[in-house]
């Protein structure tokens, strides 16, 4: 089969360079690459041009409209049987496309997604953030995967779909955050077959510091309520866990002012995260950073969820997002 790899880009020329370098080394060669510059102030045309002789690559520039609309722009100009949606901060292992091709030959499905992991070149904080986003001790189980607590919904950093199905669904919505989950929900509601391909993993850099990470997960918490307002059946009990974690953390901290032992549950949780991350990353430094990343991940998501619940479900306000001017950052 022929694949179209669609990548929206905003001010990330160096990361595009790493992604394209990994695409050159793919063992399966039947694919094209569409790089869509979404109103970047720091364009990557000079990077893309270096790969014209090695890849079937197309480069487009457009006004900024967000990643969802930018992916739709690329899909309209693609030629593949399947569209593969990637973030610009991803690096692919050599057998990524070969694994997908082998799976689809045996399982002719409509859509799929895969996991992510940390590359050896990532900074310690990026590895800690990756741990926080994939660990069963945080919301890794909610996001789905091998040890999932909910069905697997492909994310836009690693998502594949038949082009005909993409067009039938109308592509991504205009949501600024949560647009990939919105799209995944519509895949299932449309009755299409969507699977998790464990071997189709990517290295995903995610955010480069904890402040940006908080903004990302806070917006994700808000997006969960926005999705609930669109699809009430999409909200599951597990999605409330970060909000409950946030509330209980506040209670434990306040209680510790009067009863020092009240902080014990947080200490136990921190030790569990530290030990698990240290063993997985073979680094006590990353283990310590993972504790901070785990609390930021859960509390950031939880506060966003609580804020959106109050504004949208109690005050009956319209859909909104925080940090909207920096949704790429």
TrEMBL record:
The chain crosses the membrane at residues 244-274, 286-310. Residues 4-136 form the Glycosyltransferase 2-like domain. InterPro entries: Glyco_trans_2-like (IPR001173), Nucleotide-diphossugar_trans (IPR029044). SUPFAM superfamilies: Nucleotide-diphospho-sugar transferases. One of its GO terms (molecular function) is hexosyltransferase activity. It comes from the Bacteria. Keywords: Membrane, Transferase, Transmembrane, Transmembrane helix. PANTHER family: GLYCOSYLTRANSFERASE (PTHR22916), TRANSFERASE, PUTATIVE-RELATED (PTHR22916:SF64). This is Glycosyl transferase family 2. It comes from Bacteroides coprosuis DSM 18011.
